[in-house]
Amino acid sequence: MQQAETKKNLKSTSKNSRLQNFFLILIIIFLTAVIVIGGILFFDIGGAKPMLLRKLSALPLLGNVIKPIAENKTPQEIELELLEAKKNDIDIRVKQLDEKGKALEEREKAIETKEELLAEKEAQLNDRLDKLNTSLSSIMEQVEYLEKMESSKAMQILSNMESRSTVVQILRNMKKEKSSSILMLMDPLQAAQILEEIAKPETSDILND
What we know:
This is Magnesium transporter MgtE intracellular domain-containing protein. Residues 141-208 form the Magnesium transporter MgtE intracellular domain. The chain starts with a helix and ends with a helix. Helix 5 packs across helix 7 (176-185) and helix 6 (164-173) packs across helix 8 (188-199). It is built from nine helices and no strands. The protein is rod-shaped. Among the domains are: 20-72, no CATH class; 130-208, no CATH class. With 209 residues, the chain is mostly helical. It has helices at 2-43, 49-57, 63-70, 75-147, 151-159, 164-173, 176-185, 188-199, 202-208.
């Protein structure tokens, strides 16, 4: 039993010793690399300093630190480059904002133009509605006036009207008996044309008036 525990302890000690040796070798390699790199950087051994600096400046983490050294720049030059980079970034953002502002202005102008067109159309429609209301009021007055006349006299008045659409509207709003008696007294061709107009939708006559 004691021999088994002794063997187990020996294996564990051997394993730990190997790990320590491995880490020790890594540390020695790292230190050797640091010494070699430091010697090249400080003493330019074999003229390898420029090439080493270029290699180190390409590394992701060390690049920003090594690159100025590789390019042999002063702290003032480095600061100036950083300021110029920030200025360029600001200029780009300002340009983007200007472009967005111009796009917004164009949209606003387009919206204003559409609003003006809509307002103009609305005004035209309101004017048209006013005229239609006036026309309808006038037609109803004429209907009331002509219905009190004899059919023969009403027919003569309607026949002499220049606007056929007005004649159609008047006859359409008359009582059927009165409008029929007037149409019977008209020229058959004229009466047929008026009947065709009366048969059409009422909105078409109002809009064409």
